[in-house]
Amino acid sequence: MIRHIVLFTAKNKAEIDGMVDGLSVLTAIPHARLLEIARNRKTDPLSDEIDVVVYGEFDNDAELAAYKAHHLYREAIERVRPLRELRFAADYDSAKVAPPVAEVEVAVGEAAALAPTKSASVETSRSIPSRAKASA
């Protein structure tokens, strides 16, 4: 499954509702398994710049491409582009994510039990190997 996340900042904070309304037309596009449009709650003490979030789930790359080719996608762009300052987008395949922390802690614990010294287990207790390194 492909997860599609887009973050927006508004040029004028008074236009955030207009951005949400403009983006809401995207929910009528049939290619998404799930599509959510929401105001950012701004509860993170380190970052509150993002105003609007789009979160979508797609079965595959073809569905995401069809979503982006849909006429309502172009309509949303036309409605929101004049209101937005910045747009950040990220897509990832949920089948290729890093393992959950619990799995990593178990794997690190098992590796630490095999380690020749205590210092080696202390050093590796916080490391999270990437998939590329783990499969090599």
Describe the structure.
The chain has 136 residues and is of the alpha+beta class. The protein has two domains: 2-96, Alpha-Beta Plaits (2-Layer Sandwich), CATH 3.30.70; 101-128, no CATH class. 40% of the residues lie in helices and 24% in strands. The chain contains six helices and four strands. The protein has helices spanning 16-24, 61-69, 71-80, 101-114, 118-124, 131-135, and strands at 2-10, 34-39, 52-58, 84-93. Strands 2-3-1-4 form a four-stranded antiparallel sheet. Helix 1 (16-24) packs antiparallel against helix 3 and helix 4 (101-114) packs antiparallel against helix 5 (118-124). The chain is flat.
Task: Jot down its keywords.
40% helix; Alpha-Beta Plaits; disordered C terminus; 6 helices; 136 residues; alpha+beta
Helix and strand sequence: EHEEHHEHHH
Number of domains: 2
Main sheet strand line-up:
2-3-1-4
Give the end-to-end Cα distance, rounded to a whole number of Å. 24 Å
Shape: flat
CATH class of the largest domain: Alpha Beta
Task: Tell me the number of strands.
Answer: 4
Architecture (CATH level 2) name of the largest domain: 2-Layer Sandwich
Quick gist of this model?
This protein is an alpha+beta fold.
Secondary structure topology:
Layout: E1 2-10, H1 16-24, E2 34-39, E3 52-58, H2 61-69, H3 71-80, E4 84-93, H4 101-114, H5 118-124, H6 131-135
Antiparallel strand pairs: 1-3, 1-4, 2-3
